[in-house]
Amino acid sequence: MKKDTTILISLFIIWGVLSRTVFHLGPNVEFVSAISISSGILLKNKKLAFAIPVIIMFISDMIIGNTNIFLFTWTGFAIPVVIGFFLSKFIKKDNEHKLTKLIGLSGLAGITSSITFFIWTNFGHWITTNMYTKDLNGLIACYINAIPFLKPQLAGNLIIVPIFVLVTYFVFNFSLKANTKLDAAKTN
Q1: pTM assigned to the model
Q2: How far is CA 48 from CA 6, 39, 122, in A?
Q3: Would the N or C end of the chain have less CB density within 10 A of its end CB?
Q4: What is the dihedral of CA 181, 182, 184, 187, to 10 degrees?
Q5: Per-residue pLDDT at 130 exceeds 90
């Protein structure tokens, strides 16, 4: 693994854990979606991209705790990684609209990540707790009652995801290009 990739992964994990513990911005305002999407975009190793949010969740949950839906919470960040894989295909080509495309697609990715996380984790809450009846009415009630938790995550991901993806994408690619030039200069 290249040094740049190792540094990027380490920074993702450190920032993810710190953003869930020390620098927590508020209920359901999180950076793990942004990190997951960026991992999908930037990392060639797909298993590693999926491992990053799981590692973040494991470490931070050891500090702040979790409930019996932790498997749903942890796996809920797999979808943003997949979204990142798809985004990487759309933004690979150099063109004059790359910046606009990256901002727009990452904003859409933030919305999609929030909604899929909401659907998956609230299904997990419905299935693993006795708070709601185990029928369609109970499931609907679970989703309706969880809407207040979706609002801050959507708002946060509309801002956090595009900024985080944009910064990490350009910093990582700039670093790779700079190191490639240094390696070429060393061989000459």
Answers
A1: 0.88
A2: 11, 8, 26
A3: C
A4: 170
A5: yes
